[in-house]
């Protein structure tokens, strides 16, 4: 009677060597298509437990059969799963309707009909045999043609994507059951489309003459000693990560290392559409508050670094003439880890525009002549930006390098201790997810600044605050 001792709560049937126990077996909820009916299990599910009785000839094994009242559990699970799927479907249908309205509004506000008319005009110009008689005008025409084509294609893609999602919704309404795979596909379409629409709306705020260009970011350590140099290095990494996530061609073209840690200064070039427009609001002083890793007592330290942004312009497109007497040019050794020219030849160039005091430094090229050309190009780009902004401010107020990286000048605060917070002083936008920000997640701050910048323009132009 070993089986009775092992399973005292069950009843023994000696004729079939079978133990029957009336315990319902729970069903696993289906997460797949409801239209696929699962194969019903048999009324008794057999589980064999090996037994070693004193009389092996009498019992070789005990078979336990669990009776499963399928009708009781399957109805509840099926109805619950269907309810979840219906809720997802209703949410998706509402999102699709909202996105369709948004796409229609964007297509209308973008002047799609006007763009198509412009496309016809530009194509006719491009087909003219005399187009290349004026090379500069030909390049301008082809660039405008490319921009119009890209914009029309983008607006067309928006419509086709939302129509695909709407088709899935309508197809689901006609079906007798809900296909989870289709719901997931439509949800992904809407999610990705809304991200693309956000980016498109952001680019519509960028109407400046150089907003479509690439960008050059210069980072300089400010007040704070070694901590400030380490902070400048952290900012360098942040902007490089941002550029890589935006799929810009990102290069650190110049870096001056600190004595103990970090960097004294660095220059980054980002090649890609609208890089300057997005990053123009990053110009200013960035302040960090944290426990200093360079302080033996672990005291809280406040440090500053300055960020300057200018457009990356082709040399032939910079139509600014600077008299030679307005330039103060000096040459130094580039410094670095070694090489045939490094620390031997004065290839680094520092160029100062005497009337404004604006300065640039170029060290990335191996020859002095090449560095001089690049430095002059960057200086001209700075002057172009200043000329554009001079309508609203005096030159000393909008000079990127006129703002001291010191107390009271910051545009954004990064607090690592005693709490975690990143806050933009101008827009008031803040987040506690400081890790993501330092990893290049700058879109919320960029978008908030652009909206703040362009929404405040009418007030400033009318003289009201």
From TrEMBL:
Annotated stretches, region: Disordered: 16-39
Signal sequence region: none
Keyword Protein biosynthesis among record annotations: yes
GO annotation, cellular component aspect: cytoplasm
PROSITE patterns to which the protein is assigned, alphabetical: RF_PROK_I
InterPro entries recorded: PCRF, Pep_chain_release_fac_I, Pep_chain_release_fac_I_sf, PrfB
Pfam families reported in the protein's UniProt record: PCRF, RF-1
UniProt GO molecular function: translation release factor activity, codon specific
SMART domains per record: PCRF
UniProt xrefs under Gene3D superfamilies: 3.30.160.20, 3.30.70.1660, Release factor
UniProt domain Prokaryotic-type class I peptide chain release factors: residue ranges: 333-349
The entry's keywords: Protein biosynthesis
Similarity comment: family membership: Belongs to the prokaryotic/mitochondrial release factor family.
HAMAP family: Rel_fac_2
This protein's name: Peptide chain release factor class I/class II
Organism: Macleaya cordata
Lineage, highest ranks first: Eukaryota, Viridiplantae, Streptophyta, Embryophyta, Tracheophyta
């Amino acid at each position: 009677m070993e089986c009775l001792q092992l399973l005292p709560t069950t009843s023994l049937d000696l004729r079939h060597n079978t133990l029957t126990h009336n315990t319902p077996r729970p069903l696993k909820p289906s997460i797949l298509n409801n239209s696929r009916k699962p194969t019903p299990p048999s009324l008794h599910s057999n589980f064999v437990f090996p037994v070693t009785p004193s009389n092996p000839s009498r019992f070789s094994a005990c078979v336990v059969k669990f009776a499963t009242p399928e009708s009781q559990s399957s109805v509840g699970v099926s109805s619950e799963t269907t309810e979840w799927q219906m809720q997802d479907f209703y949410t998706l249908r509402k999102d699709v309707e909202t996105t369709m309205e948004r796409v229609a509004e964007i297509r209308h506000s973008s002047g799609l009909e006007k763009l198509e008319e412009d496309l016809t005009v530009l194509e006719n110009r491009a087909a003219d045999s005399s187009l290349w008689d004026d090379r500069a005008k030909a390049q301008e025409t082809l660039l405008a043609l490319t921009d119009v084509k890209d914009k029309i294609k983008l607006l067309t893609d928006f419509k086709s994507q939302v129509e695909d999602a709407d088709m899935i919704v309508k197809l689901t309404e006609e079906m007798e059951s809900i296909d989870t795979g289709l719901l997931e596909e439509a949800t992904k379409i809407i999610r990705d489309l809304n991200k693309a629409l956000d980016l498109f709306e952001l680019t519509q705020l960028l109407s400046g003459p150089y907003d479509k260009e690439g960008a050059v970011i210069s980072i300089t350590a400010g007040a704070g000693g070694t901590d400030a140099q380490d902070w400048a290095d952290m900012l360098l990494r942040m902007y490089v990560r941002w550029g890589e996530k935006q799929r810009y061609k990102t290069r650190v073209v110049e870096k001056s290392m600190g004595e103990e840690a970090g960097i004294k200064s660095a220059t980054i070039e980002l090649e890609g559409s609208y890089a300057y427009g997005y990053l123009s609001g990053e110009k200013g002083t960035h302040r960090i508050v944290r426990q200093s890793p360079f302080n033996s007592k672990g005291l809280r330290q406040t440090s500053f670094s300055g960020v300057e942004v200018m457009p990356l312009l082709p040399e032939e497109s910079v139509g600014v003439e600077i008299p030679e007497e307005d330039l103060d040019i000096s040459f130094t050794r580039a410094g670095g880890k070694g090489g045939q020219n490094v620390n031997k030849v004065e290839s680094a160039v520092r160029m100062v525009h005497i009337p404004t005091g604006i300065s640039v430094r170029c060290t990335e090229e191996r020859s002095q002549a090449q560095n001089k050309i690049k430095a002059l190009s960057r200086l001209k780009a700075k002057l172009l930006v200043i000329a554009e902004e001079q309508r609203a401010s005096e030159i000393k107020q909008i000079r990127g390098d006129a703002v001291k990286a010191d107390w009271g000048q910051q545009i954004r605060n990064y607090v690592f201790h005693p709490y975690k917070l990143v806050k933009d002083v101008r827009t008031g936008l803040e987040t506690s997810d400081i890790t993501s920000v330092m990893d290049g997640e700058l879109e919320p701050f960029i978008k908030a600044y652009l909206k703040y910048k362009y929404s405040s323009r009418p007030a400033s132009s009318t003289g009201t605050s």
